Automatic annotation (TrEMBL):
NCBIfam families: thiS
UniProt lineage: Bacteria, Bacillati, Bacillota, Bacilli, Bacillales
InterPro entries reported in the protein's UniProt record: Beta-grasp_dom_sf, Mopterin_synth/thiamin_S_b, Thi_S, ThiS/MoaD-like
Gene name for this UniProt entry: thiS
Entry-linked Gene3D superfamilies: 3.10.20.30
Name of this protein: Thiamine biosynthesis protein ThiS
Pfam families, sorted: ThiS (PF02597)
Domain of life: Bacteria
């Protein structure tokens, strides 16, 4: 399946069916995230329910500390 993540094309395996699976696939599970799925911001509890489909657009913002 092909999706767009942060403006870049990404091909993911068919077993990645939800946003939570995408987060795990990208190894971002331990980071505070804001996820936008097809122009809709998701609450964290929605990550396991939001189904990915071919052609979806996902924006992921994660915070980086610094000084």
């Amino acid at each position: 399946m092909k999706i767009t993540v942060n403006g870049n094309g990404l091909e993911i395996q068919d077993e990645v069916k939800h946003i939570k699976g995408l987060i795990d696939f990208l190894e971002l599970e331990d980071k505070p995230l804001i996820i936008e799925h097809n122009q809709q911001i998701l609450q964290k509890e929605e990550h396991e329910k939001a189904v990915l489909e071919n052609g979806d657009k996902v924006e992921i913002v994660h915070f980086v500390g610094g000084g």
